Amino acid sequence: MPCELSRSVVVVQRTRSADYCPTNREKLSPHSVATVRSGYETMWARAINREYWSGAVRSAEIARIGVYALEAYGIFKIGEIVGKSRLVGYNVN
């Protein structure tokens, strides 16, 4: 029994260790505010630019944009279904 207890303590210590955490081990971190802001500024600039849209239609890039929009909408709807815990409607009780 003491041996099993010591193994349990070692496992708990490893899981709490910063070296064990995959985020620290792989050096993952969230994007900086400046990076996120830059991405949204680029999207907004393209969204209001007529030349961008006319170029997208001419180069058939509009189909790729449409697919991305459809994927985003699908992910949103799946999140709604999971959040409501049902496929259609809300629980009104």
Automatic annotation (TrEMBL):
Pfam families: ATP-synt_G (PF04718). GO terms for molecular function: proton transmembrane transporter activity. InterPro entries: ATP_synth_F0_gsu_mt (IPR006808). Its main location: mitochondrion. Keywords: ATP synthesis, CF(0), Hydrogen ion transport, Ion transport, Membrane, Mitochondrion, Transport. GO terms for biological process: proton motive force-driven ATP synthesis. One of its GO terms (cellular component) is proton-transporting ATP synthase complex. It is found in: Mitochondrion membrane. Belongs to the ATPase g subunit family. This is ATP synthase subunit g, mitochondrial. The lineage of its organism: Eukaryota, Fungi, Dikarya, Basidiomycota, Agaricomycotina.
